[in-house]
UniProtKB/TrEMBL annotation:
Assigned keywords, A-Z: Membrane, Transmembrane, Transmembrane helix
MARVEL domain sequence ranges: 21-174
Family of this protein: Belongs to the synaptogyrin family.
Organism of this sequence: Lates calcarifer (Barramundi)
Statement: the UniProt record of this protein carries the keyword Cytoplasm: no
InterPro entries: Marvel (IPR008253), Synaptogyrin (IPR016579)
Gene: SYNGR1
The name this protein goes by in its record: Synaptogyrin
C-alpha cells in the first residue's frame, strides 16, 4: 500500500469550470501574451517590408536589417504556439495523476516563461535599436512606421506578461512544495474513503473522520480533486 501512496498514486481529476479557469491570473496572462504575439507577428509580416520608389526589391523597415524582421516574425509565431500549448496544459493539469509529472509541468512553466521573458527583452532592445538608426531616406513615404512602433511596444509589454507567468508558476511550485503535493507521503484523499490515518503538518498521526479535511483542501489546488479553484497569489 505504501508503494501506491508514493508520489500521489491516487486518482486525479475534477470537473472543468471554464468560467473559473478563464478568471485565473495565469490564464489571463497567457491569453494577453498570445494576443501580443499575434500583434507583433502581424505588424512585421504585413507592413515590415518596404521598398523605395522605383525599386522592386523589398527591405526590412528596421534599418534594412533582414535579421530584425526575421527575429520578430519568428518570435511572434513561436510565442503564439507556446501560449496555446501551455493553455492546453493548464486545462489538462488537474487530470495528471502522477506527482512527478505535475512537478515537471510546473517547473517547465517556470523555465519556459522566464526564457520567453528574456527573449522578448532581447527582441525589444534589438528592434528599438534598429528602428532608432533607420534613415529617413530609406523610407521616404513613411510607410509602416506605426506597425514598426507597435511591434516594438508590444515586444516591451511581452517582457512583463511572460515574467508574470514565470512568477505565478513559481508561486504554484512553492505552494506544492509546502503542501503534500510533491512529497513521498502524498495520498489522494478520494482514495481514503475508509478514513485511514494520515500525517498532519506537525507530524502527528490523526484520524480523518471523513477521509478528507484540511489536507484535502490544501492539496486540492493542485491534485485536481476540487476542479479549478481561484488562487490568491
Amino acid at each position: 500500500m505504501e508503494g501506491m501512496q508514493a508520489y500521489g498514486a491516487g486518482k486525479a481529476g475534477g470537473a472543468f469550470d471554464p468560467v473559473t479557469f478563464f478568471q485565473q491570473p495565469q490564464t489571463i496572462l497567457r491569453i494577453v501574451s498570445w494576443l501580443f504575439s499575434i500583434v507583433i507577428f502581424g505588424c512585421i509580416a504585413n507592413e515590415g517590408y518596404i521598398n523605395r520608389p522605383k525599386e522592386g526589391e523589398e527591405h526590412c523597415i528596421f534599418n534594412h536589417n533582414q535579421n530584425a524582421c526575421n527575429y520578430g516574425v519568428f518570435m511572434g509565431s513561436m510565442a503564439f504556439l507556446c501560449c496555446i500549448a501551455f493553455l492546453a496544459l493548464d486545462v489538462y493539469f488537474p487530470q495528471i495523476s502522477s506527482v512527478k509529472d505535475r512537478k515537471k509541468a510546473v517547473l517547465a512553466d517556470i523555465g519556459v516563461s522566464a526564457f520567453w521573458s528574456f527573449m522578448w527583452f532581447v527582441g525589444f532592445c534589438f528592434l528599438a535599436n534598429q528602428w532608432q538608426v533607420t534613415k529617413d531616406e530609406d523610407n521616404p513615404l513613411r510607410e509602416g512606421g506605426d506597425a514598426a512602433r507597435a511591434a516594438i511596444t508590444f515586444s516591451f509589454f511581452s517582457i512583463f506578461t511572460w515574467a508574470g507567468q514565470s512568477f505565478l508558476a513559481f508561486q504554484r511550485y512553492k505552494l506544492g512544495a509546502d503542501s503534500a503535493l510533491f512529497s513521498q507521503e502524498y495520498t489522494d484523499p478520494s482514495q481514503d474513503a475508509a478514513g485511514a490515518p494520515y500525517t498532519s503538518f506537525g507530524g502527528d498521526d490523526l484520524e480523518s473522520p471523513g477521509g478528507g479535511g484540511g489536507q484535502a483542501n490544501n492539496d486540492g489546488a493542485f491534485d485536481g480533486t476540487g476542479g479549478y479553484q481561484r488562487q490568491d497569489y
